[in-house]
Design brief:
GO terms for molecular function: peptidyl-prolyl cis-trans isomerase activity. Involved in protein export. Acts as a chaperone by maintaining the newly synthesized protein in an open conformation. Functions as a peptidyl-prolyl cis-trans isomerase. Belongs to the FKBP-type PPIase family. Tig subfamily. It is a single chain. The protein has eleven helices and eleven strands. It has about 425 residues and is α+β, with helices and mostly antiparallel strands. It has three domains: about 110 residues, 2-Layer Sandwich (Alpha-Beta Plaits); about 190 residues, Trigger factor, domain 2, CATH 1.10.3120.10; about 100 residues, Chitinase A, domain 3 (Roll). Strands 6, 7, 8, 9 and 10 form a five-stranded antiparallel beta sheet that branches. Strands 1-2-4-3 form a four-stranded antiparallel beta sheet. Strands 5-11 form a two-stranded parallel sheet. Helix 5 packs across helix 11, helix 6 packs across helix 7 and helix 8 packs across helix 9.
């Protein structure tokens, strides 16, 4: 097999491969026998092999087409190994010499992974934050849990922040109703900030059965161009006002969160433990985000277009699953442009992380893997069962090993980066850790 490789542009390569005619013809013969086997042809007894000349006349073109495609795939991947090519994505094939009795020649066009020479980690700045879970944080969390499980009772009293209202409303600009400005039976929680400024606060004090006129203005950055900054008037009818009745801190409430506690004090201890675990993960995540941002800022890398396309397909699939499209929506109907920037960033991050791993010959630390598994196990009633699960499921354990490697990359970068320390709070860290990448 003869192989030559040409660089056309950037990461794109064209490989020209020659395959001896005898090797190809052997495949054509095998494929012809496979296709002809069991075919019913008038004038020939069913189950008996067709004469070679008849089979070739009837199925020769199909057999040759399929044999050539198989040969191109096989020869290409052999050549990739032989030439030690770092293949990124799948190739496209084009036969250039395809005549019976002659050597097959074809071109394979593909992309390779970029060669990455990482910039010195000393150029990366990281503000490593610290925080603790305070008594006030725990109290607020328990209050939030109670509110999330509140019962709602209709009330004749005036509406306050935190109350749920059922309302009918219609909006007007310059005295004219506008599209999308009306609804009936709309459920609104006061203080949720789900409406434009002034709308919810204007309903504080209203009672069931009352009508309220609100004079407000759309924000300058409102998502609809025709409404940006426009003054508007809403006529609102309050159908019902519901006030929350918070659950008691009792065993039934504790069990709803999987906590076996006999009193509020023990429940508070468990809540604090969970918050501290969450805070620890969030602090590591915030640091990792800064390390990744530093790697992106200090390294310029060509990204294979084929890898971006693959990532776009994954993001499309995730979007369909997230919004419950199921079988009704073909992910390919979603425009690639919606996902291109995110996909390119994801691929670039992966390339840089792998470059750190390869250049420093990092392998998953057994201690780090055990630590991560223990973090998960500690949240379950039977930690030993969780440990056994990972020990007996190589695929699941490999996911933990990948996370361990990511943390080892972060540690490697931090060892050389310019690291400063900063105090923060539980809420700020959780909010920062959950920001979209």
């Amino acid at each position: 097999m003869q192989v030559s490789i040409e660089t056309t542009s950037g990461l794109q390569r064209v490989m020209t491969i020659g395959v001896p005619a005898a090797e190809l013809e052997q495949k054509v013969t095998t494929e012809l026998k496979r296709i002809a086997k069991g075919q019913k042809v008038n004038g020939f007894r069913k189950g008996k092999p067709l004469p070679a000349n008849v089979a070739k006349r009837m199925f020769g073109k199909q057999a040759r087409y399929e044999a050539i495609y198989q040969q191109m795939q096989q020869s290409f991947f052999q050549a990739v190994q032989q030439e030690e090519v770092k293949l990124a994505g799948m190739p496209s094939f084009e036969p250039t010499v395809d005549e019976e009795g002659k050597d097959l020649e074809f071109k394979a066009t593909f992309e390779v992974y970029p060669e990455i020479a990482l910039a010195d980690f000393a150029g990366i700045e990281v503000e490593q934050k610290s925080a603790s879970v305070t008594d006030a944080d725990v109290e607020k969390m328990i209050d939030t849990l109670r509110k999330q499980n509140a019962q709602w009772n209709e009330s004749e009293e005036a509406a306050e922040d935190g109350d749920q209202l059922s309302i009918d409303f219609e909006g007007f600009i310059d005295g004219e109703a506008f599209e999308g400005g009306a609804a009936k039976g709309y459920s609104l929680t006061l203080g949720s900030n789900s409406m434009i400024p002034g709308f919810e606060s204007g309903l504080v004090g209203a009672k069931a059965g009352t009508e309220v006129t609100l004079d407000v203005a759309f924000p300058e950055d409102y998502h609809k161009e025709e409404l940006k900054g426009k003054p508007a008037q809403f006529k609102v009818t309050v159908n019902t006002v519901k006030k929350p009745v918070l659950p008691e801190l009792n065993e039934e409430f504790f069990k709803s969160f999987g906590v076996e506690a006999s009193d509020a004090e023990n429940f508070t201890v468990e809540v604090r433990k969970n918050m501290e675990r969450e805070l620890d993960r969030a602090l590591r995540n915030v640091t990792k985000q800064q390390v990744i941002a530093g790697l992106l800022a200090t390294n310029e890398v060509d990204v294979p277009a084929s890898l971006i396309e693959q990532e776009i397909d994954r993001l499309r699939q995730q979007a369909v699953q997230q919004f419950g499209g199921g079988q009704q929506l073909d992910p390919r109907q979603l425009p690639a442009e919606l996902f291109k920037d995110q996909a390119e960033k994801r691929v670039l991050i992966g390339l840089l992380m792998n470059a750190v791993i390869e250049s420093n010959e990092l392998t998953p630390s057994a201690e780090k893997v055990e630590q991560l598994i223990e973090e998960v196990a500690s949240t379950y009633q039977d930690p030993a069962e969780v440990r056994d699960y990972y020990a007996n499921n190589p695929q699941q354990k490999s996911q933990v090993e990948a996370l361990a490697l990511e943390e080892q990359v972060v540690e490697k970068v931090l060892a050389s980066a310019k690291v400063s320390q900063a105090e923060s709070s539980y809420e700020e860290i959780i909010r920062e850790a959950n920001k979209p990448a």
